[in-house]
Write a structure and sequence with these properties.
86 residues; alpha+beta; three-stranded mixed beta sheet; 3 helices; globular
Length: 86
């Protein structure tokens, strides 16, 4: 119950290989409440926005609230990624 979030280091090469957009691209970026994929956005019939990151190792789909995103300086989004008591 304490911390079941998956840590995804968005600038780490191994994590970039492991966590991909639902269509398997590594060109995604986090947005405030979901994710955005550059390759999907470039497709004429697709929206680049997606809500679940795919873990290629376990084949799980992870919602934005289930991951803790870290970049070089620390948590990407303090609001979402810090543990806030209900
Ligand atoms: Zn994509």
């Amino acid at each position: 119950m304490m911390d079941s979030k998956k840590v995804v280091r968005i600038e780490d090469r191994q994590d970039r290989w492991r966590y991909v957009c639902p269509r398997g691209h590594r060109s995604w970026e986090p947005t405030n409440h979901h994710f955005w994929c550059q390759k999907c956005a470039a497709h004429p019939e697709m929206d680049g926005v997606f809500h679940e990151l795919r873990d290629r190792k376990t084949d799980d789909l992870l919602d934005r609230s289930q991951v803790r995103l870290l970049d070089r300086v620390g948590p990407y989004d303090i609001d979402l990624d810090s543990e806030v008591a209900e």
